[in-house]
Specification:
Shape: globular
Distance between the termini: 27 Å
Strand order of the largest sheet: 1-32-31-30
Helix content: under 10%
Radius of gyration: 21 Å
Length: 473
């Protein structure tokens, strides 16, 4: 501890010592001012992701700009496993998976397989001048099951980005990434043996078009569903497409793909995620430009559309901007929930949170403009993210009162749109907050993780939310 504190100013060191005293007493804190510090270290810890495991625990991954790494600095890949009480199961500060020299970060993939192993896919610069795609499999005990260096499905000098990974229902793993203007995929068995040849399977973009991978999840019968953005040049429209790969690598939704949205354009640089419907289909939420409106779509297992083509609008009110949506899905009722950042145009910040529920055919259930979750305030809304719980959807977001003065709030609705929990504090320490991610645990709790600048450039903090929206155990 003495060596760690020597990096900091005395006041910050004293605060940090007090924080760790609190952590020693209780991992999941009941006080939103004292969230659990997953990784508090010098420099930046960024881009956390969280996924549930059995018995209420979770995996949390992130990039760590470690000044003591080999090479020094560089965004290294770390992993931590927490039990249901929030107790770390790996060494303090996380398990180092890859000591990289990367000077910047891109998106990456985290998944959990049926045996409780963590699966990660990321860009890797340890093998020479060209970045490669690396996939690792980590046991609940922290063992590197595919070797120290992992597997390298993406080699060569072509531009690579956005690697994602998915565990399939038959015990295999599929990795996908941007490869030049195209998409490439590889499938591994449990032992890490490639199934789709040396080079994998490439989904090629037409001339003048670029494909950018957005998301990847397992489907039914060993299939994997992927979504991507098709862009016709820098100024051309950006469409959201999807397809499904069979265990043999066939495109089950056709070589022309499924057009989730081709009736306008996505925002440049926007790659919306999707969630599985649990039956071989996928549920999407996104926003389009001109006008800025949020939409939802459900694609069935056979590639057909449950909602009208180009999706259903969350709100028909075009006098307000509706951006940065988050989708969640109730597999029992077939209902889809969409939350978004609602913005009142003007010279001053007026932002809030609204929501819409759709029935199985895309019909709006909460009126033409949805329901208000958070009325307009002068705080900017960032990081809108949601999950479906056993009682209804829960949404969380960052409210930025001023630069680097953020708090994380949450709210929970019932299926009728009533507030089970009106907006409440998840993290009320005012500091910069980014990359909020949520998951729903196997013990009926929501788990949140984010990057937080309360001590320095950014550390990783986490918090649980109980079914009644209280915090702690």
């Amino acid at each position: 501890m003495v060596a760690r504190l020597s990096h900091m100013k005395p006041l910050v060191a004293l605060l940090l010592f007090a924080f760790w005293v609190q952590v020693a007493l209780a991992r999941w804190s009941s006080d939103p001012m004292l969230n659990f510090g997953v990784a508090i270290k010098p420099n930046e810890q960024v881009q956390p992701k969280i996924r549930p495991i059995q018995n209420g625990g979770c995996y949390i991954s992130w990039f760590d700009n470690n000044p003591d790494g080999q090479p020094p600095f560089g965004y290294d890949v770390y992993l931590q496993r927490l039990n249901d009480k929030g107790d770390p199961q790996f060494r303090a500060g996380g398990r180092l998976l890859a000591d990289l020299g990367m000077s910047s970060t891109q998106d990456y993939g985290l998944e959990v397989d049926a045996e409780g192993n963590a699966l990660l896919a990321f860009l890797d610069d340890r093998n020479g001048p060209d970045n490669v795609v690396t996939a690792v499999k980590v046991s609940p005990l922290g063992q590197m099951l595919w070797g120290r260096w992992g597997k390298h499905p993406g080699l060569g000098s072509d531009f690579k980005a956005n690697p994602k990974i998915a565990a399939t229902s038959d015990g295999f793993v599929v990795i996908g990434w941007i490869n030049g203007s195209n998409l490439t995929f590889q499938r591994y068995n449990a032992a890490g043996e490639a199934q789709w040849g040396i080079d994998g399977i490439t989904v090629s973009a037409p001339n003048g078009t670029t494909y950018s991978l957005a998301d990847l999840h397992g489907g039914e019968k060993g299939a994997a569903i992927f979504s991507f953005v098709s862009s016709a040049g820098f100024t051309g429209p950006k469409h959201l497409l999807a397809n499904k790969l069979s265990p043999a690598g066939d495109l089950l939704w056709g070589t022309s793909h499924v057009a989730v949205f081709d009736g306008g354009s996505l925002q440049f640089g926007y790659f919306p995620p999707f969630v599985s419907d649990g039956s071989g289909g996928a549920v999407f939420g996104w926003y389009a430009v001109d006008p800025l409106q949020s939409r939802a779509q459900h694609i069935f297992a056979d590639g057909s559309e449950a909602f009208p083509h180009n999706g259903s609008l969350g709100s028909t009110d075009i006098s307000r901007d509706q951006v940065n949506p988050s989708i969640s899905y109730d597999a029992v009722s077939g209902s889809t929930y969409l939350f978004w950042d609602e913005i009142l145009p003007g010279p001053f910040t007026n932002e809030g949170i609204s929501a819409q529920k759709f029935d199985s055919t895309g019909g709006a259930q909460w009126g033409p403009t949805g329901v208000i979750v958070q009325p307009f305030t002068s705080s900017a809304i960032i990081n809108v993210t949601s999950v479906y719980t056993s009682e209804g959807p829960l949404v969380a977001w960052s409210a930025e009162m001023a630069v680097s003065q953020d708090e994380i709030l949450g709210a929970k609705l019932d299926p009728s749109g009533n507030a089970l929990c009106p907006p409440f504090a998840i993290s009320s320490t005012l500091s910069s907050k980014s990359r909020l991610d949520l998951t729903f645990s196997t013990t009926d709790r929501v788990l949140a993780v984010w990057s937080d600048g309360r001590f320095d450039g950014g550390d990783i903090f986490a918090q649980n939310v109980n079914p009644d929206c209280s915090l702690g155990r």
